[in-house]
Amino acid sequence: MSMRPVIVIGAGIIGASITYHLAVRGADVTLVDAGLPGAGATRHSFGWIGRSPGDSSPAGELRALGRSHWERLAREVRGLEVHWSGALVWGEHFAGRGPRDTHAATREPRLVEPPRHAEFRPDDGWVDPVRATESLISAAREHGASVRFGAPVTRLVTTRDGAVDGVELGQEILAASTVAVAAGVGSTALCATAGVNLPMLSSPVVMVRLRASSGLVRGIVANDQFEARQDVDGTVLIPLDYDKHTSTDELRRTGEEALRVFMASFTGADDATLVSAEIGWRPMMADEKPRVGYAEASGLYVAVAHPGITLASVIGHAAAEEILARTDRDEPAAHRSPGTA
User: Fold this and answer.
1) Which among 53, 130, 179, 293 is least buried, having the fewest CB atoms inside 10 angstroms?
2) Do 166 and 253 fall into the same domain?
3) Same domain flag for 72 and 99
4) Membrane spanning segments where (predicted)?
5) Within a domain: 23
6) Separation between Cα atoms, residue 248 and residue 260, nearest integer Å
7) HEC profile of the chain
8) What is the pLDDT along the chain (341 residues), one digit of tens a residue?
9) Model-level pTM greater than 0.90?
10) Following CA atoms 127, 134, 280, 237 in sequence, which dihedral angle do they give, to the nearest 10 degrees?
11) 202 φ, ψ (degrees, to nearest 5)
12) 139 and 157 share one domain
């Protein structure tokens, strides 16, 4: 391998996973980001790890592998907490092919009106996206990775023949054997500096955070009216569709409506309060498929995917394999089992 390091751009969950998987294999890797770990799209992620039962599509298979890799990471990475709480889902939007479950009142005893028929997905779980990102980066550093935060990349550096061989940080240039772009919605602009087209969708989401008494929501609850999960400190996350909000007042009203729905849905939620309602931008390719692999410009590796949390574990593993092998396989490494080296 070249003496020049691999540079990973983007300290979100996918960039952190790639950096960790490279570092644990002994690679010389540097992670750079303009902000702090998980400060971008990762912060606004719901953190749900799972897939619909019976989904045999490539995306469904990748989600299943993502779960297996999260199990592995929970064993490997000190401080990484994966909560395998299961998910209780019902309604038209979440209707799957799993068996009907009639124990909703037992699964989620604080529901005011438990559904008579729901689907319980026992293999689903969640992570706190920012804490998980920080844990992966901390573990990467323990294995020798370097980090540069507060270091915005202004452009990718290319050779005369168009190969990517470094990044520009203001007046500083860092040379690289491979540059992995995992910068979320900023990936398009970065790739363009190397003449690479990376078409992405504009996919905003509103993430509402509430503060409530601990223990109101046991796992993930999702239906046509709302989705919710509760962290161990009492924080409740409710993701909502973006409705062309144009002011902070509109966002606040959306958050207040989510609070009312939550209070009406769970007993003991009368003291719940609104913490924030913020817009996050989900990295999503125009064809809505993950884009993971070497780009047409030599030395440039791209990792953009939604849902980023579920897929970050398997993408990190696959990207490290391909970058260290300097090849793009016909069968992506992401589709192989977690134990495959």
Assistant:
1) 53
2) no
3) no
4) none
5) yes
6) 18
7) CCCCCEEEECCCHHHHHHHHHHHHCCCCEEEEECCCCCCCHHHHCCCEECCCCCCCCHHHHHHHHHHHHHHHHHHHCCCCCCECCCEEECCCCCCCCCCEECCHHHHCCCECCCCCCEEEECCCEECCHHHHHHHHHHHHHHCCCEEEECCCCCEEEECCCCCEEEEEECCEEEECCEEEECCHHHHHHHHHCCCCCCCECCCEEEEEEEECCCCCCCCEEECCCCEEEECCCCEEEEEEECCCCCCHHHHHHHHHHHHHHHHHHECCCCCCEEEEEEEEECCCECCCCCEEEECCCCCEEEEECCCHHHHHHHHHHHHHHHHHHCCCCCCCHHHCCCCCC
8) 446 899 999 999 999 999 999 999 999 999 999 999 999 999 999 999 987 665 655 567 788 899 999 999 999 999 999 999 999 999 988 876 677 888 999 999 999 999 998 999 999 999 999 999 999 999 999 999 999 999 999 999 999 999 999 999 989 999 999 999 999 999 999 999 999 999 998 789 999 999 999 999 999 999 999 999 999 999 999 999 998 888 999 999 999 999 999 999 999 999 999 999 999 998 989 888 889 999 999 999 999 998 899 999 999 999 999 999 986 554 455 544 343 33
9) yes
10) 30
11) -90, 110
12) yes
By residue count, the chain amounts to 341
Are both 309 and 172 inside the same structural domain?
A: yes
Residue 252 lies in a domain: yes
Spatial CB neighbours of 332, under 8 Å, sequence gap ≥ 6: 292, 293, 318
Contact 202, 29 (CB under 8 A): no
Name the amino acid, one letter, at 110: R
**Which residue range(s) make up the domain with 100?**
87-122+204-281
In-domain check, residue 317: yes
- For the chain, the domain total comes to 2
- Are 215 and 327 contained in the same domain? no
Burial zone of 234 (CB within 10 Å; 0-12 exposed, 13-18 middle, 19+ buried): middle
Tell me the β-bridge partners of 82: none
Residue 1 is assigned to a structural domain of this protein: no
172, 219: one domain? no
